[in-house]
Specification:
The protein contains two helices and no strands. With about 70 residues, the chain is an all-alpha fold. This is YtxH domain-containing protein.
Length: about 70
């Protein structure tokens, strides 16, 4: 009975390892990781632009400067 348990655990680990290897060798994992970093960078820059715009509006109103050039 113990041998059957260890064989089933070994088969399970082997299947998981082969799936992970196939995923890494196909580049799918790399593509997902790059996509996540690109999304994070995009979100960061969008927040930066919004903050910059908000701060510019505050400064313009504090200095009573017309927004039109």
């Amino acid at each position: 009975m113990k041998k059957l348990l260890w064989v089933s655990i070994g088969v399970g680990v082997g299947v998981l390892a082969s799936k992970k290897y196939a995923e890494v060798s196909s580049g799918a994992a790399l593509n997902r990781q790059v996509g996540k970093y690109a999304d994070r960078a995009s979100e960061y820059w969008e927040a930066f632009r919004q903050g910059m715009s908000s701060r510019e509006e505050e400064l313009r109103s504090a200095l009573s400067v017309d927004a039109a050039k």
